[in-house]
Amino acid sequence: MPELNAGQPAYDLIGDIHGCAQTLEILLHQMGYRKRQGIWQHPSRQVVFLGDIIDRGPRIRQSLHLVRDMVEHGSALIVMGNHEYNALAYCTRSRPGSTQSHVRAHTERNQRQIRETLAEFEHHDLEWQDFLQWFYTLPLFLEMDGFRVVHACWNHKLIRQFRDKFPDGCMNEDFLHASMADESFAGKVTDHLLRGTDMKLPDGLAITSKDGFTRRFFRTKFWASNPETYGDIVFQPDPLPKDIATRPLPEAARGELLSYGRGEPPVFVGHYWMTGKPEPITPNVACLDYSAVKYGKLVAYRWSGEQQLRQENFVWVNVDRTDVSPRA
Ligand SMILES: [Mn+2]
What we know:
Elements lengths: L9 E5 L6 H10 L3 E3 L2 E3 L3 E5 L10 H14 L2 E3 L3 H10 L16 H13 L4 H11 L5 E3 L4 E3 L5 H10 L7 H6 L6 H11 L1 E4 L6 E2 L5 E2 L1 E4 L13 E3 L5 H4 L5 H6 L10 E3 L15 E3 L1 E2 L6 E7 L10 E5 L10
Parallel strand pairs: 1-4, 4-5, 7-13, 13-14
Antiparallel strand pairs: 1-16, 2-3, 6-7, 8-11, 9-10, 11-12, 15-16, 16-17
Bound molecules: manganese (II) ion.
The site of manganese (II) ion (MN) has 7 residues, from helix 3.
């Protein structure tokens, strides 16, 4: 596809906010957006938010208002992140017959993930209920003219099947309930699109990460092309030990993997807590989550029609310590 003609929309894609509203305003300002009649806007460009507006950071409520105002004004688009999905499930009562009170169990770990969000809305319950209803209007993916957007992983097959049932790309409450069964269609869609893909380590092996967490799974690339070893498909969060990384991939493991062809439109994801200097992962895959809420960077990609992503189109703001929760 050629570069855009005059008058065609151009987009600024922005990674996970996690309540860093102050940094978001700096980034928007840096890209030429101005607040007019209370809404951030640009004369010729639109934002696309990659999801995960809530949780962890110090200005979650403000972030939600800012983003929703932009979306409702036509100044931005957005896809759902796993944190908005988790919030819906956490705050929705189970149906009769379930063994737990809410769709997402109120375990200590789940409670910890959402506590900053609920604390900010403690005296604004109706407003929170209204935001929860709004979360249902966030599509799980966007297929635009010239690029694609999803929070964590573009799975062609699941997206095609989901779109057949939900042409607007949005889930509903039945789907939310159904998604709690991991092996159900709804469970696979939410897991892949919002959390990414992983694979079991061979021979029942486990690895212990820097933070002392033991894993039997590792995160896989959804864009691997002709991989030969485990090392060719590992994405994050920790590198594989060398003896595993160099092992050849068995046929069955290869069959589980997704791919994303080099000739396909660029796809933008968030979700992955990247570090270092923002740059494309491949010529048509970019992650824009650079751990803003962990004193990283809030990152945007300024897209104007190019099909090969360019390093110079990444822009970012280093997160100020005042815009990060001490609890993050
Ligand atoms: Mn995420």
